[in-house]
Amino acid sequence: MTKPTATRQEAQIPRQGQVIPGAGPALRPGERPTIRLRETGTDADADAAAGPEEPPRYAPEWLQLREGADAAARAPELLDPLRIRLANLPGRAGGLTVHDLGCGTGSMGRWLAPRLDGPQHWVLHDRDPYLLHFAAVSSPRSAADGSRVSVETRRGDVARLTPDALVGASLVTASALLDVLTPEEVDTLAAACAGAGCPALLTLTVAGRVDLSPGDPLDAEITEAFNAHQRRTGLLGPDAVTAAREAFAAHGATVQVRPSPWRLDAADSDLTAQWLRGWVGAAVEQRPELAAPAEKYLAARLAACGAGELRVTVHHSDLLALARPRGGAS
Fold first, then answer.
1. Quick one: which of 152, 132, 153, 279 has its CA closest to 209?
2. How far apart are CA 140 and CA 151, in angstroms?
3. Residues 294-322: tens digit of each pLDDT
4. Is 51 left (phi over 0), alpha (psi -120 to 50) or beta?
5. Pairing state of beta strands 311-322 and 254-259?
6. Where are the alpha helices (DSSP H) in 101-166?
7. pTM of the full predicted structure?
8. pLDDT-wise least confident of 2-6, 75-79, 102-106
9. Which residues pair with 319 in a beta bridge?
C-alpha cells in the first residue's frame, strides 16, 4: 500500500518535538556527545557520577528504527580477522569479555554475539538507564556455537576513558560512536585498547557522503552543511575514520577499514523520513540562510519517500583495530 505524501506541516524544517532525538543526529544547542565509561562500584555510585537526570540524547525509537539498516550495513568481511585474533588471545579459554561503548538499545550485541563462538560476557556502557535496561533484557543469550552469553550494565557520565575501564577486556566494540568524539577522545580510546591488548570493532562511522536518487541540485550543499555541523565544537564528524586509523596505528595496532553503507529504499521509508528530517535540520542549523530552499527541498524529498520513489545511500565505514595482545605475539 502506497503511503500518503507528506503534508506541509510534516515537511517543515524539524523543530523541537518534530524529529526523533538523535535522528540525523542533530544535537541540542551547546551539547556534545562524549565517551562515558567511568568505572563505578555500585549502581548508586553510578547514579551519583552521572549527576542530575537529563533527557536521553538518542531516543530508543530512533535506535530501534535504524537497527535493521545497521545490521545490513555492517561489514561482515571484518569478522574473520577478528575471530582469528580472538581465538589467539591469551586467556581465551575463560571466554570473551566484550565492552560495548554507548550501547544504546544493545543492537551491536544482538548482531555480533551470535556471530562469535565461545562463552561471552558483555559489559554494556551507556549514560541512559532506560537504554541500559532495554539492552540488557533484549541481549542474546547464546553465541554462534551455543555457548552462554551473559551481560552486565555500567552507567556513567564523564567525558574520558579511565585507565582501568578496560581491564580484562577481550574486545571493545561500538556503533556510530567515532564521529561524535574529539581527536583527543579517539586517541584515549586507542591508547586504552592498546593498554588492554584488545581489538576494537567500531562500526557505522559516517563518511560524509550521501547519494540520493533521483538527484537534486541542493544535495551537495545540504551534505556540505551537515558535515560542517558535525564538526562543530571540535568533533571529528566525517574525519573520524581517518583520525581513528592514525590513532590506533600510532599505538601499534593493525587497522582495517571497510565500507558499511545504509542502502535505503521504499521498504525503509520510515527510517528514511526520520533521517531526512534530522539531516536537513542539522544543515539548516549550521547555515540558516538555507532555511527557505531547504524547506522546499525537504517537502519534495519526503513526498518522494512517501511515494516509494526515493533511494538513499548513506555512506559509513567500519574499522577493525587489532592491538598487540598483552603478553602475546603481534
1. 279
2. 9
3. 999 999 999 999 999 999 999 999 999 99
4. left
5. antiparallel
6. 107-112, 129-137
7. 0.84
8. 2-6
9. 202, 257
